[in-house]
Amino acid sequence: MDNKSNQAVGDDSNGLETLEENPTQVENAANSSAAPAPASEPTVHAAPGTTPPQPPRLPFKEKWRRFAERFNLYLIIFIFVIVLAAGIAVVAYLNSNKSPTTNVSTQTLDQKALEQLANTDTNVGSSSQVLKVQSNAIFAGKVLVRDTLEVAGGLQIGGNLSLAGVTVSGSSSFGQVQVTKNLAVLGDSALQGQLTVQKGLSVNGNGVINGSLSAAQITTSALQLNGDLTLTHHISAGGPNPSRTNGSALGSGGTSTVNGSDTSGSISINTGNGPGAGCFITVNFANKFNATPHVLITPVGSAAATVEYYVNRSTSNFSVCTANAPAANSSFGYDYFILD
Predict the structure, then answer these.
(1) Cα–Cα distance, 319 to 334 (Å, whole number)
(2) Would you say 335 and 266 are in contact if contact means Cβ atoms under 8 Å apart?
(3) Of 277, 276, 271, 267, nearest to 253 (Cα)?
(4) Does residue 218 form part of some domain?
C-alpha cells in the first residue's frame, strides 16, 4: 500500500512538473481558433488521502477579457444611464410637489418676561414665529405695526382716529364723522339723519329735496318754482341802481331822480318853467331783460294823480311820460315794480 501511494504521488508530481514547464498551455488553448470556448484547466485527480493541487491563477487581463466576452460593456453603461436619469426625474417630481412646512415654535411668557418687555426695548422671536397673548394687553405708549394689521374681531377706538385714506367695500355705520378736507363720494349717498354744512355747499348736478328746505340765505342764479310761492316775510329787491335820462316834459330847470333796482324803485320829478307834454324820465336797466318786461307804475301824491301819465318800455329801459302839460315848479313821484 505504501508503494502504491508513493507511485501515485510520483505521478502527481510529474503532472505538476508538466504544468509548471508549460505555463502557457491553458492560455494557448483559450486563444485557439479551433475551440469555440476558452479551454478549461486540466483536471488533476488526487490520490485518496492526499490534498488536490490548486489550479494556477490567471492574470488580471485574462480575467477581464473573459468577463467582457460574457457581457456587453456598452449595454451595461446604457442601462446604468437610463436608471440614473429615471431616479433623478422621480426625485425632482417629488420635491416639486412637496409643500414647504414651517414649524412655528411657541413660547410661554411668564410675569418676569412681561415686565422685561415693558421696561426695555427687546426683540421677541423672529418673523416666522407667532406671539400669542392669552390675557388682555395694555400698551401705555405708541404701537407701530410695520406690516399689515389684521383684526379678527371688533375694533373699538376710544380716541380720535387719523387715517391717510379709508376704503370701505361694505356697509358702514358712523356715529359722527368729521372731514377736515374734501369728501368725495363717487356713488350714490343716502343720509337718514340731518345734514349740517358749516360752510358752502356746492352741487354741480341737480338736487331733489322731498321735504322742506330751510336756509338763512339762498343765493342762486336761477330759481324755478313748479308750485305756489308762499312768502311769510318782506320781499327785498336787490341789485345795482339803474341810470336815468331827463326828458323834455320837465321844463326849463326841471330835475328827476331814480332810487332802486331793475326790479323795483322810486322816481322823483321836479318840474321847472314851461313844462309840456312828453316824457319826464327814462330809466335804463343795469341788466337787460331777455324780453320786454311788465312795468307797473303807481303815482305818489295828489299832484301825480292829476297828471295823465303813461309808460314806454323795452328790454333795456322804460320811460314815464305825460299826455298833457303838468304844473310848473311842482314836485311829485312814482313807484315802479317790474317783472320779466
Answers:
(1) 12
(2) yes
(3) 271
(4) no
Residue 265 above 90 pLDDT? yes
Helix H or strand E segment including 295: strand 294-300
Rounded CA separation 203/194 (Å): 18
Write the CA distances from 17 to 29, 59, 196, 292, integer angstroms.
19, 20, 131, 157
Secondary structure element (H or E) that encloses residue 278, with its range = strand 278-284
Question: What pTM value is reported for the model?
Answer: 0.43
Q: Is 282 helix (H, G, I), strand (E, B) or coil?
A: strand
Give pLDDT, residue 100: 60
Per DSSP, 273 falls in state B
In this predicted structure, what is the pLDDT of residue 161? 77
- Residue 274 has which C-alpha cell? 314851461
Task: Identify the CA nearest to 275 among candidates 311, 333, 326.
Answer: 326
199 domain-assigned = no
Please check whether residue 321 lies inside any domain of the structure.
Answer: yes
Residue 257 CA to residue 268 CA, distance in Å, equals: 5
Enter the C-alpha cell of residue 147: 406690516
Domain residues for the domain of 313 are 243-339
Structural domain includes residue 148: no
Please tell me the total count of domains within the chain.
2
Q: Domain boundary residue among 36, 57, 78?
A: 57
The per-residue b/e assignment along 62-76, b for 16 or more CB within 10 angstroms, e otherwise, is: eeeeeeeeeeeeeee
Angstrom distance (rounded) from CA 322 to CA 304: 10
Whole-Å CA distances, 7 to 11, 12, 47, 48, 95: 6, 9, 10, 12, 76
The three cell numbers of residue 260 are 332802486
**Cβ atoms within 10 Å, residue 269:** 28
Q: Are 289 and 315 in contact (CB under 8 A)?
A: yes
